[in-house]
Specification:
This protein has a domain of about 110 residues: Aminopeptidase. The chain is globular, with a radius of gyration of 15 Å. It is α+β, with helices and mostly antiparallel strands. A hairpin with a 2-residue loop joins strand 6 and strand 7. Helix 1 packs antiparallel against helix 2. The N and C termini lie far apart (about 30 Å). It contains 5 helices and 7 strands, in the order E-H-H-H-E-E-E-H-E-H-E-E.
């Protein structure tokens, strides 16, 4: 088995919007099926239907794109230097360190900007990923999307020494 190419991180560019919208939709469609039904997935993916609104959302957050070669394989968006708003990995790159590189980058950014904790509303699919990184569950949420509800868990990680 070959070693995956090194992951590079860079800031979001407006030209990334169409690729990241497709990556977002593919990630939800292919990675969340064990935790969410088709109706829930469709409602979730609808967040990227309006590409201009999706692009504006990413532009309004501190968004970092992960690349393998020149290909975007994931992205993370940080709100107010303290809340992970979005973290998605292309399905064929899941489990290869892309999510960890993105989470590590925003954790370091938040800490460097004086934040002592980082929060996320983790999907059921991402819950284990964030727990493994030291995030602790705070509360369970039911979020309305179109005519359905999606469950997620608010989590928090202290950004203290050695974390």
């Amino acid at each position: 088995m070959s070693t995956p190419a090194k992951i590079a991180l860079r800031p979001y560019l407006p030209a990334d919007a169409p690729v990241l919208a497709a990556l977002f939709r593919a990630s939800v469609a292919e990675l969340t099926g064990e935790d969410y039904d088709e109706e829930q997935q469709e409602a979730w993916m609808a967040a990227a239907d309006d590409q201009a609104a999706f692009a504006n959302r990413l532009s309004g957050l501190l968004t970092v794109v992960a690349l393998r070669g020149s290909e975007p394989v994931g992205f993370v968006a940080l709100k107010d230097n303290e809340h992970i708003e979005l973290l998605y990995v292309r399905p064929d790159a899941a489990g290869t360190g892309v999510g960890a590189a993105l989470a590590g980058a925003v954790e370091a950014l938040a800490k460097a900007r004086g934040k002592t904790a980082l929060t996320v509303d983790a999907s059921d699919t991402a819950l284990g990923f964030f727990q493994h990184r030291g995030y602790e569950a705070q509360r369970r949420n039911m979020v309305p999307r179109a005519d359905t509800w999606l469950g997620n868990t608010s989590m928090k990680k202290a950004l203290g020494e050695g974390r």
